Amino acid sequence: MSGLTGSPADRRATLTAALRVLVLAAAALAAVGAIGRAAGLLMLTTTLGPTAYVVLAHPDTEGAKLRNSVLGHATATACGLACLAVFGLWSHPSVAVTQHDTWTQIGAQALSVGVTLLVLTLLGAYHPPAAATALLITSGIAKPGPQLYGMLAGLALLIAGAALLAKVPGARTRARDDGQASAGRGDREGREG
Predict the structure, then answer these.
(1) Looking at residues 105-127, what average pLDDT do you find?
(2) Which long-range contacts (C-beta less than 8 Å, at least 24 apart) are formed by 119-124?
(3) Which residues contact 62 (CB under 8 A, 6 or more apart)?
(4) Chain centroid, CA 1 distance in Å
(5) Whole-number pLDDT of residue 2
(6) What is the CA radius of gyration of the chain?
(7) Helix segments in 40-102, DSSP class H
(8) pLDDT tens digits for 21-32?
């Protein structure tokens, strides 16, 4: 797809795909938010936005695969929690409360994302939104306790729901025409080719 600048058929396909993603993403995120509210947990966190985009707008890409989504966020969670422990930040207030990072938090944040990306590269599990999960944990915004449990439950609901929602008819197969199908694996293919 070439956005709204192509032929009338391309413009219709782009509009159909855009409306499909709007409806699916809004429905999925509203459902997660409503379930979280009913459960008394904050499930709708910032890591869900990019995850929804990848899995719903580009369901045929490497980053949207169920395996990669699950491994990505699980790895990020493990790395984030490990960095909280190693840097002694388990009980430290979040950056949202203090309104600034300490040098220790900056080190934990940087290392948690770096190690997450290292592990995901070694596993061949490309899911860029996982980096946000690592940052949310090490910044203390999703620290161990209800914040973390809510975020993880929200991710689980979104990833499971997206696997079903991605099957909703629409201009899904057109995503391959816009060059986005290689999102998350272009660098790897370039090195292999």
Answers:
(1) 97
(2) 119/75, 119/79, 120/68, 120/71, 120/72, 120/75, 123/71, 123/75, 124/188
(3) 68, 126, 182, 183, 184, 185
(4) 23
(5) 61
(6) 18
(7) 48-52, 66-86, 95-98
(8) 899 999 999 999
